[in-house]
Amino acid sequence: MKxxxxxxxxxxxxxxxxxxxxxxxxxxxxxxKLLKLNSGKNIENRLVNVGKIFYPENCLIDEVCAVFNKAPxxxxxxxxxxxxxHGNPLIINEIINAFLAYGVRIARPGEFTERAFxxxxxxxxxxxxxxxxxxxxxxxxxxxxxxxxxxxxxxxxDKIHSxxxxxxxxxxASIDHSDLDEKFIExxxxxxxxxxxxxxxxxxxxxxxxxxxxxxGVQAVIIGAPNTGKSSLMNLLLREExxxxxxxxxxxxxxxxxxxxILGIPVNIYxxxxxxxxxxxxxxxxxxxxxxxxxxxxxxxxxxxxxxxIKKEDKKIVRDVSDLSNIFVxxxxxxxxxxxxxxxxxxxxxDAIPISAAxxxxxxxxxxxxxxxxxxxxxxxxxxxxIANARQENLLCKTRDCLSxxxxxxxxxxxxxxxxxxxQAARKNxxxxxxxxxxEFLLEKIFxxxxxxx
Length: 454
Hints:
single chain; 454 residues; alpha/beta; seven-stranded mixed sheet
């Protein structure tokens, strides 16, 4: 039998109210021991019960409201009690310690949601969405998480899973009755089904970049030659003086990272060391980090300086990112111009956004460019079903690879047993996405990222 767990479900620190959550087979029994209702009755199911908590027996801790939800009609699928008390940390700790004295255990991170998953209240994609909702910081990251919580991804995966199960049934029947002349399914039909399944997997996989960026944020790095105004641009986007700005080249020697909300899009933005030839050890280290970020980022904001001629460092940077996704910015347009937009077009064949990090001119256009980049993938988190994370993407890739191997086996004329083995492997990978099959280590890894009260 599972033990009963307890945790504070609201943030720690002083507040008007605090919510303490219990879950487990004896949650109601423990509440009855400590809670004396004003009505004189026992705690009632699915009602707000008002009373006082005493511990020891005649020592009042607080007057509280408690809601008892009997299994299976609760978040975890177990008996649960949620106690709302005054938000003084001293009161909260005394209530929790009183329950601990009776044998209740402090919950592990994510253990309430883990129990909800294990008790069939949530599939694994919906459970992951719970954590994404808690951490969401923008409109679109919240929308993506809510869609997943509602089971939209699970439904898409289940459609593919159902077709795989139907195909496996036909293949297994053919293997079991291979001594008969009758064919249960023709090779042409098998090929058509496999190609359809691969196409459906590909369709879902195409949503992964948009889904992962909605949850984790667009990874954006500001790059450029020294003293082009990269740090000033970072401060402008953040709307605060986050980075030290100086006319001395090489001021930024390390990567500076902040997260911001740009028109509902979460953006993780990195200010980097200027790229140029340097004998300074620290500058070289900073530039090594910059080069590494260039490869990993979703988009690069390349800063050029309108107040000076184009230099060899500028040309090298533009050349190095030519095959990547970029936003080109011509900064310092408030100063007397030397390089203009027409020069950028002539030299590099690219369009740039004219801005002034000093005055804020062009900021709205730059922010719209981030918005347009995200939606260039063709998906809207408020409407579309998206792959949300690398785990889901990796398992769907494995599913697709297994189906492709099965198709290859069929086209090479191998026996149906080889095909069935590949389709069976595809089924197992797909089931891991929603948690139909999952190992204890995987669950521990997923739920350890949650806060304790969830």
